[in-house]
Amino acid sequence: MQVSQIHLTDGTERLVSPPSQGHRLVMVFGSVARLEDGALLASVNRCYPDSVVVGCSTAGEITGEGISDGGATVTAADFLQTRLRRAHARVSRMEDSWRVGEQLAAELEASDLVYVLVLSDGVHVNGSELVSGLSSGLAEGVTITGGLAGDDGRFERTLVIDGESIEERAVVAVGFYGERLRVGHGSMGGWESFGPIRRVTRSRDNILYELDGKPALTIYEAYLGEDAEQLPASGLLFPLALVSNDLRETGLIRTLLAVDRERGSLTFAGNVYEGGLVRLMHANFERLVDGSHNAADLAVRSLAGRGPTLSLLISCVGRRLLMGSDTDEEVDAARRVLGSETLLTGFYSNGEISPFVPTARCELHNQTMTITNFHELD
Fold this sequence. Notes:
By secondary structure, this protein is an alpha+beta fold. Helix content is 21%, strand content 40%.
């Protein structure tokens, strides 16, 4: 497995591609403005012919050098003994998210499928349902990771790259096939719970209507105080933790996407289950950085002693908005664990897709740092 990366800043750089060896994956991450005119993608496809080209818009790009805005990164990985197959689907309505996941699984499923990378629209897709539909159609043991596209925290319009096309309301997935690929992963948060645990008394999928029999928006605004005036943007700093019936946190966090003041409801990036328990969260800077370190450590350990050649880092835009100019610290924390020989790529997202721990099922996460490590055996 061989990797290379080009970081584009002002649009004047020329793409130069080494000769392909094996099956080439090209990941393109960039701002909405940089991707939407199509010139960059056209250049990528000319430079990297006969490659599986995927990507999405972001709330910031991640490389080994840190975090950038307004530009783009192009990362190429040549898999010498692993086959790749790309699948694509459109999402006309959020209610179609489960079906779209099932459709992608049907296109990719094969006896030697070992891993699926998924990149999705970050505004018009129910990530929980997408992941559930995808998982339902894949064999047990197939690893799934990825993320929802970003748009600098606006939650208005995101883009997904599928080959030569750039689309809204789309999902692209890549299947990896063969016995020589090893994939490690880790996903950690670092947020702190506060306030009482509350019962979800009315919800539908990712729309929360009532907590403890009261309008969800009313309770949310009471906790946020002055910050409620900036909803839904300020909701990124106050996500919901899903709590199990034995009052333990499940590790699943939900980010607010939108509010409906007429109905008093809140729309989240993933499902909030009726009858379940939730609790508000707020940030602790040191714990967020520790979460990034721990995610990297888990991703490395799950490779069972094999050093990663490539690491894909997908972190939530809410973490970035909270940490501000200090956000590089969470990337630095991960890089120290991953090592200088590992090429880093990734982006800030509207949601992260990964098992929480290696033995768990895949879930949509919010407000986490999620890391996927790749290593191909000789």
